[in-house]
Specification:
By secondary structure, the protein is of the alpha/beta class. The protein contains 14 helices and 21 strands. The chain is globular, with a radius of gyration of 24 Å. The protein binds nicotinamide-adenine-dinucleotide. Nicotinamide-adenine-dinucleotide binds near residues 152, 154 and 209. Nicotinamide-adenine-dinucleotide (NAD) binds near residues 152, 153, 154, 230 and 251.
């Protein structure tokens, strides 16, 4: 099922691939077996200049198109992605290590959803009319210019599309830097835009690590940066962007609480806890990794959770039956193992998992991949490192609580504020608790559902700005106010 082995990943600028000569390179590894998928070439200063020149040129063509014209290109790009679903899903599966079933059901579909949502909305973006007696005013939401998107590695094409769709719908151009670990599918998005009739340069793709991201952040002709990444990178970008007073959207990490009250539907709550920790091998920013369970249901909840966790089919991501794949890199796997060791030595009880499996669920050898069994710690307390730091791997921490007031205070005791979930059948309690949780994206009786129609983003150190929904428009436009006089100019002079 593996396609495109030994690919060459070059920059995609002005509708064409650059050459690979005179550029540093590195190997892109398949997380499932650590074999090479190909060589990635890092953008140099000339590439960044060429990308900015080309995006500026495209911006001047694109910004004068009507919203309906822009929308048609986005809608066509969406249908191209849908028609190439399987091919792009395989690229994503190989690049990220996630199961093919996930890539087929979520990643590419979610990218297409974003293009359709903002494609449909493009013609409706409008300002306001203000009656001022002998005058009137109106506002124009105008595009910002060339925007830069910088992506994380866990949902590469989804992240690229969640940034590109609103940016382009509003009349901007975008230069996208994929994560150095997942260069494949942002290029597929760029090709879809070209095929859909976008001007060359409207969506350019460059490759590289933080140094290339830094070149974009520091570039004087780039108007806005949208990052999906860690809190540490968010802080660096915000401080560099401040020197240019650049607009910045930050979608960062979290350590989100999932609170299960005793009156909840336990089977659904267990399903949500599993999805909130083990989907995409636990590499999801909004994961509910601190699972607070009310004391009276603690034992029955744990029993179901353990049984169902141990049935998760971990293994070869290309097998359609696989439910959990490989972590993005050896280095990241080592980091997750260190957290597991820290959990054990801090006194938490390892309920299940915590090891590197050598065989997958069909008995295939997976020693060469970055696999960690789904892991659950019980007897956790709020001060343990595993309960405070974002692990970004398949590690679930169970915390026991007694009262509503207590759990709200404990859930909020974190510098992060990305997401939160509450399970209860008491409708009043559900809303009352959610309203007090310090998080930007919340769920009652579900977890990690992110429809394009709802804003997504974090509070506190988990970020600023929002992606998706109508809310995204304000982050890719700037308002111009126009006053129009209908009478004479009155002057004291
Ligand atoms: P990361 O911060 O290491 O890297 C993210 C991106 O920033 C990469 O493309 C990287 O090359 C670039 N980068 C790194 N340093 C930079 C710098 N100084 N200037 C400019 N760019 C720089 O994060 P990661 O390891 O790729 O992704 C995991 C993190 O992303 C986790 O913390 C996760 O929670 C977060 N994440 C957040 C969301 C969200 O929507 N809130 C979604 C996915 C992932």
């Amino acid at each position: 099922m593996f396609l495109n082995e030994n690919m060459v990943y070059n920059q995609f600028i002005d509708g064409v691939f650059t050459s690979s000569s005179n550029r540093e390179s590195w190997i892109n590894y398949n997380p499932a077996n650590n074999q090479s998928l190909g060589e990635v070439y890092r953008a140099n200063h000339e590439d960044i200049e060429a990308a900015v020149d080309s995006s500026e040129k495209a911006f001047h063509v694109w910004k004068i198109k009507t919203g309906a014209e822009r929308g048609r290109v986005l809608l066509k790009a969406a249908s191209i992605l849908r028609s190439r679903l399987e091919e792009i899903a395989i690229l994503e599966m190989q690049d990220v290590g996630k199961p093919i079933s996930e890539a087929l059901a979520v990643d590419i579909i979610s990218a297409a959803d974003a293009l359709e949502y903002f494609g449909g909305m493009a013609a409706t973006i409008h300002g306001e009319f203000v009656d001022l007696k002998n005058a009137f005013g109106y506002t124009r939401p105008e595009p910002l210019g060339v925007c830069a998107g910088i992506g994380a590695w866990n949902y590469p094409i989804q992240i690229a599309a969640w940034k590109a769709a609103p940016a382009l719908a509003c009349g901007n151009a975008m230069i996208f830097k994929s994560s150095e670990l997942t260069p494949a599918t942002s290029i597929e998005l760029a090709k879809a835009f070209m095929e859909a009739g976008a001007p060359a340069g409207l969506f350019n793709v460059v490759h590289g690590d933080g140094r290339v991201g830094g070149m974009l952040v520091d570039h004087p002709r780039i108007a806005k940066i949208s990052l999906t990444g860690s809190v540490a990178t968010g802080k660096k970008i915000l401080s560099s962007a401040a020197t240019h007073l650049k607009k910045v959207t930050l979608e960062l990490g979290g350590k989100s609480p999932l609170i299960i009250f005793e009156d909840a539907d336990i089977t659904s709550a267990v399903s949500a806890a599993l999805l909130a920790n083990f989907y995409t091998q636990g590499e999801v920013c909004s994961n509910g990794t601190r699972v607070f369970v009310q004391r009276s249901i603690y034992n029955s909840f744990l029993q179901q959770l353990k049984e169902r966790t141990e049935k998760i089919k971990l293994g070869d991501p290309s097998d359609p039956d696989t439910q959990m794949g490989a972590l993005i890199s050896k280095a990241h796997m080592e980091k997750v193992i260190q957290f597991i060791e820290a959990g054990k030595s801090s006194g938490a009880t390892l309920l299940t998992g915590g090891f590197q499996p050598e065989k997958d669920f069909k008995g295939r050898d997976i020693k060469s991949g970055n696999f960690i069994a789904p892991t659950i710690f019980t007897d956790c307390d709020d001060t343990m490192e595993i309960c405070r730091q974002e692990i970004f791997g398949p590690v679930l921490c169970i915390l026991c609580f007694d009262s509503e007031e207590e759990v709200i205070e404990r859930a909020n005791d974190t510098p992060f504020g990305l997401a939160a979930g509450v399970f209860t059948n008491d409708i009043k309690r559900g809303h009352r608790v959610i309203h007090q949780l310090q998080a930007g994206t919340c769920w009652i009786n579900n977890y990690n559902i992110t429809p394009i129609e709802l804003p997504f983003g974090g509070n506190k150190q988990s970020g600023q700005g929002r992606e998706n929904s109508l809310a995204a428009i304000q982050y890719y436009t700037q308002l111009k106010s126009v006053y129009v006089e209908l009478g004479n100019v009155e002057s004291p002079y």
